[in-house]
Specification:
The complex is a heterodimer of chains A (582) and B (376).
Chain A: H1 14-17, H2 27-55, H3 61-69, H4 71-104, H5 110-122, H6 125-136, H7 156-181, H8 184-192, H9 197-226, H10 229-234, H11 241-250, H12 255-281, H13 304-328, E1 331-333, E2 337-340, H14 343-350, H15 354-385, H16 390-402, H17 405-416, E3 420-422, E4 425-428, H18 441-466, H19 469-477, H20 482-493, H21 495-511, H22 527-536, H23 540-565, H24 569-581
Antiparallel strand pairs in A: 1-2, 3-4
Helix pairs in contact in A: 2-12, 2-15, 2-16, 2-17, 3-4, 4-5, 4-7, 4-9, 4-13, 5-7, 5-13, 6-7, 6-13, 6-23, 7-9, 8-9, 9-12, 11-12, 12-17, 13-23, 14-23, 15-16, 15-18, 15-21, 16-18, 18-21, 19-20, 21-23, 22-23
Chain B: E1 21-32, E2 35-47, E3 52-56, H1 63-71, E4 78-83, E5 86-87, E6 98-101, H2 113-123, H3 128-141, H4 157-169, E7 175-179, H5 187-204, E8 207-212, H6 215-221, E9 224-229, E10 232-237, H7 239-244, H8 249-254, E11 259-262, E12 265-269, E13 272-277, E14 280-286, E15 297-301, E16 307-310, E17 319-326, E18 330-337, E19 340-347, E20 360-364, E21 370-374
Helix pairs in contact in B: 2-4, 4-5
The chains are: A mainly alpha (582), B alpha+beta (376).
C-alpha cells in the first residue's frame, strides 16, 4: 500500500530527496539583468563611487580632522541630525493624526481630508517653503497681517514646519494602510470582554500600531536631512549638511570638501534608510488565521471632536499654503498689492519660462517610462528570478532614494564633468557642465531615472509579492518563456502598481531639485531650478507661477498615464469594497 | 417554531435568572444603494439557561447578523433582545455579560497567551489572586499548560482556538457566542474541538449560541438547532426532530439529503396520513399543515431509509438503477422511478456485488421514517 508510506521519511520519495535543480536562466532574463545592471551602475553606482573616491583620496583625509575639530562644522552636523529627528517626529505625528481621523473617527468630510493630505506629494519642492514665508514670515499675510506678530520663520522652526508638511503624506499613507489592516475582530473581541472605546485604543490599537511608527519616522528622517531645497530658501543661518555641500561645490568650487560633507551626510542617511528597510521586512507579529471578520466601529463620542479639530487645523494650514501658491501666481505682490495679474503666468508659459517648461517636460517624459520599466523589471527579477543576488539588485535600485540627492548630484559632477579619455580615444564625453554634450541633458535624464526608479520598484515589489507564483508557473507550464509570462500574465495583473509607479516617477522627476540644481547648464533650464532662483531673489510671484504650472503639469501627467496604462481591475475592486464598507 | 425537546437539554439546572436569553421579533434591515435588505426578519427565540443553540443556514441567511446583534455589534432595526427578562438593546457590547469566540479567533497578537486570557479579567478589575486562580483553572481545563508565555503566532490553529475559548470563559459571561469558530481548522481537529467545546460548555453550564453553516457540526453539538433561511427561522428544534420531521422542504434539503416524492394525502387519521406513493399505500407522519386532498404535498424520504431489491423479470420492478457510486461504508444508487429519480444509500458491500446499472429493482420505503410536508 503506497498510501501508508507517506509518513515514512523523505528519503523514499524522489521529489523530496532530489534538491531543486537550478534552472538555467533564460537568455532574455539574462539580457534584462545586464541592461538594468548597466543602467544602475552608470546612474547610481559610478557617481557614488566617484564621491567616495574623492572623499577618501589622500588630500581629503586631513579634512575629517578639520571637520570634527571645527565648532562650525560640528554645529552643521548637529543641525542636520536635530532637523531630521524633529521632522521625523512631527511628520509621523501629523501622518498618524490624519490616518487616525480617516480610519477611526465618525466625522464628516473625510474624503476631502484625504485629498488634502495627499496634496504635498504632487507639489513642487519650493511651493510650501515660499508660501510659508509669504503667509507666516516676518511680514506674513497671516502672522503679521492677522495676528500682528513679526515672526522670524527662517531657521529650524520654519524648516521643521515646512518639511513636516511636505513629507508627512508618506507617513500618512503607511499608517492609514496599517490601521485599516487591523482585524476589526480584535477590537470587537476587546469590546466584547468589557473594554471601553478608550481602553480599546490604549490596550489594543496603540500597542499594535506603535512598531509601525518607527518606519515612517526613519524614512522622514532620511528625506529631511537629504533635503536641499528648503534649507536654501528657508534655512537662514541654520546650515545643514546638504546645503553646506551644495555651497562647497557651487560657491567655493571645493569639490574635495563637498565630497567630505557628502560622506558625513551619507552615514546617517544610509544607516537610517536601511534600518527602516530592516524594520519593515522583519516578521510581522500578527496572527492571521482566517479571513478578517467584523466591522470597524468608528469613534462616535464627544472625544472625536478635539482630534478632528486638530486635523482640520492642519488641513486648513495646508490649504492656505496651496491657496497662496495659486493666488500668489496671479497677484502682483500677494498680501501687499493684491492686483490681479497674469504677467507671471504669462512669463512662465509664453515668455522666458517656456524653455524651462518644455525642457523639464521632455526630460521627465523620457525618464518616466524608463524609470517605471526599470523599477518594474528590477522588482520582477528580485521577487521571482534571482535568489542569492537579489538583494544586490534591489539595493542598487533603491540607491536613488537612499542616497541624498545632493550627494548624487555631486557624484555626477565628479564622475561625468571631465571628458574621459582612454588613450587617444574620447571614450566618454563630458555629460555635466557648460561644455557637456546636449547641454547636459543626458545627465539630467539619467538623474531623473535614477531618482525615480525606487518609486516604481517599491510598489511593484509589494504587488508582485502578493501575486502567487503558481499563476506564473501555470503560464510557464503552458509553454511561455519567462518574458512572455511577464508580458502576458504578470504585467496585466500588476497594472495598478505600474500605474502608481509611473505616476510617482513622473511626479518625482518633475519636482526633483536637489540633484538637478547641480546639473543644469545655461543651455538646459529646469523648472525647479528656476523656482529656486526666483524664490531666493524674492521674486515670489514668478516662483508661484512656476509652481502652479508645474503642479498642473504633474496632474495632467497623472491623467495621461492613467489613460495610457488603463486602470487595473484590482483598483476597481478595491474601490467597490471600500464603498461597501462605509 | 417548536419548543425545546426537554429530554435533550443536557445542561445542568441553573437558577432562573442566569443566562435566559430571549429574542423578540428581532429584525435587521440594511439600507444600501440598491434598496433596503432585510437581513434578519422577525426572529423570535427563547434560549434556556445552559442551553446550546446553533444558528444554522446558508451564507447570507442572517445567522451571523443575529449573533452580532446579540453581542451588541449591530443595532437591531426593530424587536428586542432580553437577557434574564431585561431588555439589553441599547447597551453597548462592552457592558453586555457575553463573550464571543471569533472565526479568526481575534487573539491579540501583541500579548502572550496568559495576557490574552487575563485581558477581560483585568478590565473587570479583579484581584491579582483571583485572576491567577481563574487563569490556572482555564489553562488546565483547556490543555494549555506550558503555553502561557507563548505568542499567539507560535501556536497551532487548535491551540489558538482553545486560547480564544479560555479568554471568553474566564470573564464568566452569562452567554457564550460562537461565530463559526471551527471553520479554519482541518477536519480531524474540528471533530476534536467540537467535543471539547461541548464538554467545556456543559461543565460551566453557560448558555451558548453557536453560528455555523456546517450541518454536521450543528447536529453533533446542539441541544437545539435553529435553521434560518433568508432572514427567517425555518425551524427550531432538537437535531433528531429537525432531521426526522423537517418543517419545510428547505430544512429537509439543507439538513442531510432527502428525496421528495409527490404524494396526494388521501386520509388524515390519528395514526398519520395515508398517501399513495410509487403505487403503494402508506400511512406516514405529516406536518400539521398537511390536509386531506391538498396539492403540493411531498413525501420526504431519506436515502438511507430506502431499500432496493433486484427483480428478475424485466418490466415488473418499480424502478431501474441508473448509476451506482461506491463510497466505502456505503453505496449510493440513483434509481429511476415513476415518481422521478431518487437517491438510495445502501450499506457498503464489495463494489463488484453492487447492483449493476440497468438492473430492475423493487423499492421499499419505511413509512416510520418518511415524513409528509408541503412545498410552500
Amino acid at each position: 500500500m503506497t498510501t501508508t508510506l507517506t509518513d515514512s521519511g523523505p528519503s523514499t520519495s524522489p521529489e523530496v530527496a532530489a534538491p531543486p535543480r537550478r534552472r538555467r536562466s533564460d537568455l532574455g532574463v539574462r539580457g534584462l539583468i545586464a541592461a538594468v545592471a548597466v543602467l544602475v551602475a552608470i546612474g547610481a553606482v559610478v557617481p557614488l563611487v566617484a564621491v567616495l573616491a574623492t572623499a577618501f583620496s589622500p588630500d581629503a583625509l586631513p579634512r575629517y580632522t578639520e571637520f570634527f575639530t571645527s565648532w562650525v562644522d560640528l554645529a552643521v552636523l548637529r543641525n542636520t541630525l536635530v532637523l531630521g529627528t524633529l521632522v521625523g517626529l512631527c511628520g509621523t505625528a501629523l501622518g498618524f493624526l490624519f490616518a487616525f481621523v480617516q480610519a477611526r473617527l465618525d466625522v464628516p468630510g473625510k474624503k476631502i481630508l484625504h485629498v488634502i493630505a495627499l496634496m504635498p506629494i504632487v507639489s513642487p519642492p519650493f511651493a510650501i517653503a515660499t508660501a510659508t514665508v509669504v503667509l507666516y514670515g516676518r511680514r506674513g499675510v497671516i502672522s503679521n497681517g492677522v495676528f500682528g506678530v513679526e515672526y522670524d520663520i527662517y531657521g529650524l522652526d520654519g524648516l521643521v514646519f515646512v518639511l513636516s508638511l511636505s513629507l508627512f503624506p508618506v507617513a500618512y499613507l503607511g499608517l492609514l494602510g496599517m490601521l485599516r489592516a487591523l482585524d476589526p475582530a480584535l477590537e470587537e473581541a476587546a469590546m466584547n470582554m468589557g473594554a471601553s472605546r478608550w481602553q480599546v485604543l490604549r490596550t489594543l490599537i496603540l500597542p499594535l500600531v506603535a512598531p509601525g511608527l518607527v518606519a515612517p519616522f526613519l524614512l522622514l528622517f532620511v528625506e529631511a536631512i537629504a533635503d536641499l531645497a528648503n534649507p536654501l530658501v528657508l534655512g537662514g543661518d541654520y546650515t545643514v549638511l546638504a546645503g553646506r555641500a551644495y555651497l562647497a561645490v557651487t560657491g567655493e568650487y571645493d569639490v574635495t570638501g563637498a565630497a567630505v560633507y557628502c560622506v558625513i551626510l551619507l552615514v546617517p542617511s544610509l544607516a537610517m534608510y536601511f534600518a527602516q528597510r530592516r524594520w519593515m521586512n522583519r516578521k510581522v507579529r500578527t496572527t492571521i488565521t482566517g479571513r478578517p471578520s467584523g466591522s470597524v466601529h468608528p469613534i462616535t463620542g464627544w472625544a472625536r471632536w478635539p482630534v478632528y479639530a486638530l486635523a482640520l487645523l492642519a488641513a486648513a494650514v495646508i490649504l492656505s499654503l496651496y491657496g497662496t501658491v495659486i493666488v500668489g501666481s496671479m497677484t502682483r505682490v500677494f498680501g501687499i498689492d493684491n492686483t490681479f495679474t497674469l504677467d507671471y503666468l504669462e512669463e512662465v508659459v509664453a515668455g522666458v519660462g517656456v524653455e524651462a517648461v518644455l525642457d523639464t517636460l521632455m526630460f521627465a517624459a523620457i525618464a518616466t517610462p524608463v524609470a517605471g520599466l526599470v523599477g518594474l523589471v528590477i522588482a520582477w527579477l528580485v521577487v521571482r528570478h534571482l535568489d542569492r543576488t537579489a538583494w544586490l539588485l534591489d539595493l542598487g535600485g533603491t540607491l536613488g532614494v537612499a542616497v541624498p540627492g545632493t550627494v548624487l548630484g555631486i557624484g555626477f559632477v565628479l564622475a561625468y564633468r571631465p571628458d574621459r579619455w582612454i588613450g587617444p580615444v574620447h571614450a566618454i564625453p563630458s555629460l555635466v557642465g557648460g561644455s557637456a554634450i546636449a547641454g547636459g541633458a543626458v545627465a539630467i535624464v539619467l538623474a531623473y531615472v535614477v531618482r525615480s526608479i525606487p518609486a516604481g520598484q517599491r510598489t511593484a515589489v509589494a504587488s508582485l509579492t502578493q501575486l502567487h507564483p503558481y499563476i506564473e508557473q501555470a503560464s510557464t507550464d503552458l509553454g511561455a518563456s519567462p518574458l512572455q509570462t511577464f508580458r502576458r500574465v504578470t504585467l496585466p495583473l500588476i497594472r495598478p502598481a505600474l500605474l502608481t509607479g509611473l505616476s510617482y516617477s513622473f511626479a518625482r522627476s518633475m519636482t526633483s531639485v536637489s540633484t538637478i540644481v547641480l546639473l543644469v547648464t545655461p543651455q538646459t533650464k529646469i523648472i525647479t531650478s528656476q523656482v529656486l532662483s526666483a524664490a531666493s531673489t524674492g521674486r515670489y510671484g514668478v516662483a508661484f507661477a512656476y509652481c502652479t504650472v508645474l503642479t498642473a503639469l504633474v496632474l495632467a501627467g497623472f491623467a495621461l498615464i492613467r489613460v495610457l496604462v488603463g486602470t487595473g481591475a484590482a483598483l476597481q475592486r478595491t474601490a467597490t469594497s471600500e464603498r461597501q464598507k462605509s | 417554531m417548536t419548543a425545546a425537546a426537554p429530554e435533550l437539554t443536557t445542561a445542568p439546572p441553573r437558577e432562573a435568572d442566569s443566562g435566559h436569553l430571549r429574542l423578540d421579533a428581532l429584525t435587521k434591515r440594511f439600507t444600501g444603494r440598491s434598496g433596503t435588505v432585510t437581513a434578519v426578519d422577525r426572529v423570535s427565540l427563547d434560549v434556556e439557561p445552559g442551553e446550546f443553540i446553533t444558528l444554522l443556514g446558508p451564507s447570507g441567511c442572517g445567522k451571523t447578523t443575529t449573533l452580532r446583534m446579540v453581542a451588541g455589534f449591530e443595532d437591531s432595526s426593530s424587536g428586542s433582545i432580553l437577557l434574564d427578562g431585561r431588555a439589553i438593546d441599547g447597551i453597548p457590547p462592552q457592558r453586555r455579560p457575553m463573550a464571543m469566540v471569533f472565526q479568526s479567533y481575534a487573539l491579540f497578537p501583541h500579548m502572550t497567551v496568559a495576557e490574552n486570557i487575563a485581558y477581560g479579567m483585568r478590565l473587570q478589575r479583579r484581584t491579582r489572586d483571583d485572576i491567577a486562580t481563574s487563569m490556572r483553572m482555564a489553562v488546565t481545563s483547556m490543555n494549555l499548560v506550558g503555553l502561557e508565555d507563548r505568542s499567539p503566532h507560535e501556536l497551532s490553529g487548535g491551540q489558538q482556538q482553545r486560547v480564544a475559548l479560555a479568554r471568553a470563559l474566564v470573564v464568566q459571561p452569562k452567554v457564550l457566542l460562537f461565530d463559526e469558530p471551527l471553520s479554519n481548522l482541518d477536519a480531524k481537529l474540528r471533530d476534536a474541538m467540537r467535543a471539547e467545546i461541548r464538554r467545556i460548555q456543559k461543565m460551566f453550564g453557560i448558555t451558548s449560541i453557536y453560528v455555523t453553516h456546517d450541518q454536521d457540526e450543528a447536529m453533533s453539538m446542539s441541544d437545539r438547532i435553529v435553521v434560518m433561511n433568508k432572514g427567517r427561522v425555518e425551524q427550531a428544534a432538537a437535531p433528531g426532530e429537525i432531521y426526522a420531521r423537517p418543517a419545510s422542504v428547505f430544512v429537509a434539503d439543507f439538513i442531510g439529503r432527502a428525496n421528495f416524492l409527490e404524494a396526494v394525502p388521501e386520509r388524515v387519521g390519528g395514526s398519520g396520513v395515508t398517501v399513495t406513493v410509487l403505487g403503494r399505500q402508506l400511512t406516514v407522519a405529516a406536518h400539521p399543515k398537511v390536509t386531506a386532498g391538498a396539492t403540493g404535498a411531498y413525501l420526504m424520504v431519506r436515502p438511507e431509509t430506502v431499500r432496493l431489491s433486484a427483480v428478475t423479470d424485466a418490466g415488473t420492478g418499480m424502478g431501474v438503477v441508473l448509476r451506482s457510486t461506491f463510497h466505502g461504508p456505503t453505496i449510493d444508487y440513483e434509481v429511476e422511478t415513476t415518481g422521478g429519480t431518487i437517491t438510495v444509500t445502501e450499506p457498503g458491500v464489495d463494489p463488484r456485488e453492487a447492483l449493476a446499472e440497468g438492473t430492475n429493482v423493487d423499492v421499499s420505503l419505511d413509512p416510520e421514517r418518511a415524513y409528509l410536508l408541503t412545498q410552500d
